[in-house]
Predict the structure of 4Fe-4S ferredoxin-type domain-containing protein.
Amino acid sequence: MKLRRKLLAGFLCLAIVGLAGCSQKADDKKEANNTATTEQSKTEENKKEEKKADDEVNGVSLKNPIKVDKEAKKVTVLSSVNGKYFTENTRHASVNTDGSNGAKSVLTAYGTPEDFYNALIEIGAKPGENMNPDNATKTHVEGSKIGATVTWEGAGKDYDINEVIKDSNGKKIEFRFGGNLERAKTKKTGCLTCLDSCPVGIISNTTYTYGAVEKRNEVKFTGNADVLPEDGTYVAVTYTLED
């Protein structure tokens, strides 16, 4: 009888241990699955963080449309291509999307004229402030010389402004920092960069006086479809202080 009791007690003990072992294994498996799921979620979150936003180009984006590099004396502005001006003439190189001329430029800018002006001041550019509505048609804009390049995802290089915008006369675009901040704020045209000397645009092309494009038909400006990407593509326009 004592032997039977000992054997029964032994079997019960083994059964309890077995059940406990199975339970522990199940708990371990559940914990492992939870850990794997957590790790996978973290990995996916990290990938999302690492992946650039679709609108991010060369350090600028819709969230941060203007970047200032004081040491290199460069200002970069997020913009997008307006394919309308691959074939139509315009006097606007770059205009803020919310301005009254927001749909009239080769490159639609997401930085404001005020922020652009302040950024140019920050890199040491000096505004000419020599233009007004009365003298505009006879005056070439003055101020610091500003170079401009354009790039985008897959471009492989920075293109000079003269490669992406065509002058029908074959002359070079030469930008100067005209200034005009107060007039720009009053007029609300949104103009950052004009293709003839302008009393409103923050910078403009000193090669021609105001009215050369729309009033006197001296020149036609169009975007270069052989170089620029398709309509709506985000690009980064970098302006560099050259003197």
About this structure: The chain has four helices and twelve strands. The first strand starts at residue 66 and ends at 69.
